[in-house]
């Protein structure tokens, strides 16, 4: 169904040419004033910046600081003004009240010289009716108008009229309308996501403008604009809560680096850059990985029961020997009674400190116990000596000691004995055995590479089975070589371990190093400023002092930098995209980064590919939201045409019958098709189909004015439009080799290449003009969630889907029309 048909008020394009031209001319005149104002604002800002710089060489320290801050602010403003050149104004709303003027909506707000509003920022409350008005609830609007522009010229307008009476006769006859949305959706894909400020739909607007606090879950089928809405929400929140979010930063977690690059350009386009982008594999500072475990291992590592296992593994490292503690030190055999040691361990455990912090207490108490034993032994020796001396010298009777309980050692003696003992290697190694200082990496490596240790931790975890324990079938799956590299599924475990262990000194050292590096850079910069301003020669200030004084909360870029390095950083807001893929353990990590629980979670539980991912939001997130979980549903698919979505709906019915497929917004006129490949004929058939797609896209672009340079290589003609070959995981290398000109890895070139060979996981969140889906039966079989992978693959195309198969098609694809 064409969406324009759902707006009965949307006028047809059959309006008289002259009236349409008249409207365009009128809007052009308004747009000219917007650009004139933008140019003026740029000139003013540039002049202000030049003036600040020109004042550089003189003045007091305070003036200098003020000038620096002023220059930075002006430079930011200028960058913002420069970033809105394209599509500065894209909408207009006419209120029903005849007394009120129309409002123009744009990428930024502008006022004229008299401070009258010329243009309203799309994120401002006054702009909301532009996005939220519907024929049923027009929000006080008589008309919503979309302006199409190229450069600084108005090329077209689309109107939706909510109150015809409000428009005069000329305006009524000049109504024009082809839904701006459909025009936008017909454009070819570029490999980078683009902003949708001009065509945000009502249900998306609700997501974008939801309150900052609480956990907002946005569930929606493929192509419903979850990602793009989440990004616009980020821009909206940064605009509305700038102070909070600039200081604490916004974290965006995505499924893979390609996806992050795919969406990465949208925020700068919206004028917002103060954001940290990462994947789950990058959430733990110092480790960055994109390798994943096989599904059955990932399922175990992602289970919340791992938290209990790791807690048990840490307890296992807090050793309580079977007998008394004996240490040979300082020529003596020192002893701590087993029950005394066990009692002190229980006392320290009761404090519920992280392991490494508790170690400090254990060390202190054991040293005291050893020193006291040393004292006791020395005193006994002394007494014996004195007794012997007394017996010898007098009558043979024992002498009367002054007080048998008297302490011969002072507090200082005890302290110095403890210090000496601490330097004794035997004492140290005993303490390291009893209660070692551990890094998260060490804990995990030693646990997973030692079956005996792992089994002991499993046994220990079964003593406290509160959150469930691993079965005898599951725990052996964790075993691996000590040298094995970290996987994405290990990252939340490292974070959990870090939480249990606390600081071991290495984190502090890393932070100190980073701080030292920053200090040196600030000093170098300050030195430049001083030489430039002459203050250095005047001897008024040295670079270190200036750098130190200049250290405040700093610009948000450094907020992002600081946040990314600091495991304990509390972000102001966190956005998780393709959130269905995160395991329970990954959520524990994400929640630690956002103790205030201000999160936007977007995903589709029907697309979950990961074995440890979510099948229910309430189950996965309920425990963290404490009644503040709000779920919104997006139901309209803006990517996949009706014809392809019909087929995808069959897959969905087979793999997640409880889910409703989204409703597609447009038809392409082309049914998806199946091509049967004869055994051994993959290379020829694949090349033929791919070449056909590339040629077709090249021709379509030529038709729509996006003409590419002629070339004998069909892949060169598709610049701007893209084809993806989606293959089973285990055959990726094989199919990539059959198409050597295709990009086939997860570097940025995949996004820019006209042709790419990807697995379903790599294609998650991305979209292409045409998709060639290879060996669907094998995709289905590749994991317990293979059916969901197939659903993801089938919903990536904006125009055409071709399925290539050698084996018979799975029943869920029975509706496909085949070709020889
Ligand atoms: N209001 C809109 N105006 C124009 N284009 C839109 C709109 N909403 C979504 N789109 C486009 O639809 C496509 C799909 O959007 P997006 O990738 O955000 O969907 P998604 O729900 O995250 O999909 P998936 O679950 O498959 O990853 C994108 O090209 C996006 O730009």
Explain the overall architecture:
This protein starts with 16 loop residues before the first helix and ends with a strand. It is built from 31 helices and 22 strands. Strands 3-4-2-1-5-6 form a 6-stranded mixed beta sheet, covered by helices on one side. Strands 9-8-12-13-7-14 form a 6-stranded parallel beta sheet, sandwiched between helices. It has about 800 residues and is an alpha/beta fold. Strand 15, helix 25 and strand 16 form a beta-alpha-beta unit. It binds adenosine-5'-triphosphate. Adenosine-5'-triphosphate binds near residues 199, 200 and 765. Keywords: ATP-binding, Helicase, Hydrolase, Nucleotide-binding.
Bound compounds: adenosine-5'-triphosphate
Class per helix and strand makeup: alpha/beta
Distance between the termini: 30 Å
Helix content: 40-55%
Q: What is the general shape?
A: globular
Mean pLDDT: 83
Total E-strand runs: 22
| SS element count, helices | 31
Strand content: 5-15%
Sheet with the most strands: spatial strand order = 3-4-2-1-5-6
Low-confidence stretches: 1-15, 173-178, 552-557, 706-720
| Rg of Cα set | 34 Å
């Amino acid at each position: 169904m064409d969406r324009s048909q759902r707006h009965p008020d949307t006028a047809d394009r059959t309006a008289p040419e002259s009236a349409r031209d008249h409207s365009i001319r009128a809007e052009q005149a308004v747009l000219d004033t917007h650009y004139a104002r933008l140019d003026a604002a740029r000139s003013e800002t540039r002049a202000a910046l030049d003036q600040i710089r020109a004042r550089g060489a003189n003045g007091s320290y305070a003036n200098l600081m003020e000038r620096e801050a002023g220059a930075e602010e002006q430079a930011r403003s200028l960058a913002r003004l420069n970033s809105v050149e394209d599509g500065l104004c894209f909408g207009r709303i006419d209120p029903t009240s005849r007394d009120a003027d129309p409002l123009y909506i744009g990428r930024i707000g502008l006022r004229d010289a008299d401070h009258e509003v010329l243009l309203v920022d799309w994120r401002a409350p006054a702009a909301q009716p532009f996005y939220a008005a519907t024929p049923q609830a027009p929000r006080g609007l008589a008309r919503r108008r979309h302006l199409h522009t190229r450069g600084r010229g108005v090329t077209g307008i689309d109107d939706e009229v909510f109150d015809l009476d409000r428009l005069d006769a000329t305006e009524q006859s000049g109504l024009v309308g082809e839904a701006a949305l459909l025009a936008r959706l017909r454009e070819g894909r570029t490999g980078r996501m683009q902003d949708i400020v001009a065509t945000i739909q009502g249900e998306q607007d609700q997501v974008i403008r939801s309150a900052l606090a609480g956990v907002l879950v946005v569930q929606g089928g493929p192509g419903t604009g979850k990602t793009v809405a989440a990004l616009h929400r980020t821009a909206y929140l940064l605009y509305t809560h700038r102070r909070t979010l600039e200081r604490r930063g916004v974290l965006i977690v995505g499924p893979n680096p390609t996806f992050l690059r795919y969406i990465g350009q949208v925020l700068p386009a919206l004028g917002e850059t103060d954001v940290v982008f990462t994947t789950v594999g990058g959430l733990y500072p110092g480790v960055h990985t994109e390798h994943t475990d096989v599904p059955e291992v990932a399922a175990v590592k992602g289970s919340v029961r791992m938290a209990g296992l790791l807690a048990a593994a840490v307890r296992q490292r807090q050793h309580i020997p079977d007998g008394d503690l004996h240490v040979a030190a300082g020529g003596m055999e020192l002893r701590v009674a087993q029950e005394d040691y066990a009692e002190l361990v229980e006392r320290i455990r009761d404090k519920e400190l992280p392991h490494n912090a508790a170690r400090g207490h254990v060390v202190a108490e054991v040293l005291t116990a050893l020193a006291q034993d040393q004292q006791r032994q020395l005193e006994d020796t002394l007494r014996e000596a004195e007794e012997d001396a007394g017996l010898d010298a007098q009558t043979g009777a024992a002498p009367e000691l002054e007080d048998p309980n008297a302490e011969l050692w002072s507090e200082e003696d005890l302290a110095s004995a403890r210090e000496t003992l601490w330097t004794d290697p035997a004492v140290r190694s005993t303490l390291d055995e009893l209660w070692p200082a551990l890094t998260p990496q060490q804990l995990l490596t030693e646990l997973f590479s030692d079956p005996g240790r792992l089994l002991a931790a499993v046994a220990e975890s079964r003593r406290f089975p509160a959150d469930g324990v691993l079965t005898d079938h599951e725990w052996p799956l964790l075993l691996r070589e000590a040298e094995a590299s970290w996987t994405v599924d290990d990252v939340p475990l490292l974070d959990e371990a870090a939480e249990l262990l606390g600081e071991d000194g290495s984190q502090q050292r890393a932070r100190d190093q980073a701080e030292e590096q920053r200090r040196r850079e600030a000093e170098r910069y300050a030195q430049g400023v001083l030489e430039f301003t002459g203050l250095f020669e005047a001897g008024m200030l040295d670079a270190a002092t200036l750098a130190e004084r200049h250290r405040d909360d700093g610009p948000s870029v450094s907020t992002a930098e600081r946040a990314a390095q600091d495991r304990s950083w509390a972000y102001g807001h966190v956005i998780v995209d393709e959130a269905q893929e995160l395991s329970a353990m990954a959520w524990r990590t994400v929640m630690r980064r956002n103790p205030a629980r201000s999160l936007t979670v977007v995903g589709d539980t029907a697309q979950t590919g990961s074995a440890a991912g979510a099948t229910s939001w309430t189950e996965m997130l309920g425990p963290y939201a404490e009644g503040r979980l709000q779920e919104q549903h997006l139901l309209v698919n803006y990517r996949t045409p009706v014809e392809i979505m019909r087929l995808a709906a069959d897959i969905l019915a087979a793999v997640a019958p409880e889910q409703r497929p989204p409703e597609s917004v447009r038809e392409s006129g082309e049914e998806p098709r199946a091509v049967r490949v004869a055994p051994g004929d993959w290379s020829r058939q694949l090349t033929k189909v791919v070449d056909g797609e590339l040629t077709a896209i090249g021709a379509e672009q030529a038709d729509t004015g996006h003409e590419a340079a002629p070339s004998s290589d069909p892949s060169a003609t598709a610049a701007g439009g893209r084809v993806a070959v989606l293959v089973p995981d285990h055959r990726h290398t094989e199919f990539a080799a059959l198409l050597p000109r295709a990009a086939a890895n997860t570097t940025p070139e995949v996004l820019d290449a006209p042709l790419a060979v990807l697995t379903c996981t790599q294609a998650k969140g991305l979209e292409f003009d045409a998709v060639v889906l290879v060996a669907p039966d094998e995709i289905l079989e590749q994991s317990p969630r293979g059916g969901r992978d197939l659903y993801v693959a089938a919903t990536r195309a904006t125009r055409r889907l071709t399925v290539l198969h050698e084996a018979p098609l799975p029943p869920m694809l029975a509706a496909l029309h085949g070709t020889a």
